């Protein structure tokens, strides 16, 4: 039997988790994406590896092997063991997008909210119309619903409009969206259709061009030009955790008893990427 928990990641700096393409495609450092919404994800293996490293440094190899499984050894058969704690990938709940006059609007879509509801629905209590309910008991808002604190211009026909870099977005109605934020505090936000989130997500990504200089002079080394993309600061992600019962009765304590920690995830830490706040709930 497995006990269910989940983790919330909030990026405090741009976050890059991905792979490097070859020079023939521009040497792009692209992030991993969900195949359906084309929004950024953090693979479960990346989360597991980072937490294993933290436990290895603070509690030793024996504890790290116990909870996360033995690492495979080259040339040795059956060297790995099953982990007690298992992680799925982290998907976006809300991604911040620049919007003139706001200046930030958090954007999501029904598919991303459904995954958040499935993961945390039986643990998060929300207030709806004066009543306390579980997140799984409330309906996901309709598409093109805006938050009550969203600053929008009144358009023809009574609809409100906000402006992104690629065009206008009409808001059909407004509603209190605080139940859909992990901290239950409403931010200026809008829910768009599943088919639109990929384009808006690409508009929100942090992008940077980098060069590798020769060691003895300020001249670009051959082939040393890089383009990097990353999830922007303020992105909120969620991932499920499954914890198998431990025969010894010990509890999993990834951060020595604390449920929240500042941690670095992904790559390019040396240039300031990857700083996140990670919170476990239901452990």
Please give a quick description of this structure:
The protein has helices spanning 44-59, 61-68, 110-120, 194-204, and strands at residues 2-11, 18-20, 28-31, 41-42, 85-87, 90-98, 104-108, 125-128, 131-134, 145-147, 153-154, 160-164, 167-171, 173-175, 189-191, 206-213, 220-230, 236-244, 260-264, 275-281.
Topology:
Elements: E1 2-11, E2 18-20, E3 28-31, E4 41-42, H1 44-59, H2 61-68, E5 85-87, E6 90-98, E7 104-108, H3 110-120, E8 125-128, E9 131-134, E10 145-147, E11 153-154, E12 160-164, E13 167-171, E14 173-175, E15 189-191, H4 194-204, E16 206-213, E17 220-230, E18 236-244, E19 260-264, E20 275-281
Parallel strand pairs: 3-17, 7-15, 10-14
Antiparallel strand pairs: 1-18, 1-20, 2-3, 4-6, 5-18, 6-7, 6-18, 8-9, 10-15, 11-12, 12-13, 16-17, 19-20
Helix pairs in contact: 1-2
Task: Describe the 3D structure.
This protein is an alpha+beta fold and 283 residues long. The protein has one domain (2-71, 80-281). The protein is 16% helix and 37% strand. It contains 4 helices and 20 strands. Strands 1, 4, 5, 6, 7, 10, 14, 15, 18, 19 and 20 form an 11-stranded mixed β-sheet that branches. A hairpin with a 7-residue loop joins strand 2 (18-20) and strand 3. Helix 1 (44-59) runs antiparallel to helix 2 (61-68). The chain is flat, with a radius of gyration of 21 Å. Mean pLDDT is 82; it is low at 21-27.
How far apart are the termini? 15 Å
- Number of separate helices: 4
Taking the sheet with the most strands, its summary is: 11 strands, mixed
Write down the overall geometry: flat
Percent of sequence in beta strands = 35-45%
| Number of extended strands | 20
What letter string, H or E per element, gives the SSE order?
EEEEHHEEEHEEEEEEEEHEEEEE
Low-confidence stretches: 21-27
Tell me the domain tally.
1
Q: By helix and strand content, what is the structural category?
A: alpha+beta
Helicity range of the residues?
A: 10-25%
Rg (C-alpha, Å): 21 Å
User: Average pLDDT across residues?
Assistant: 82
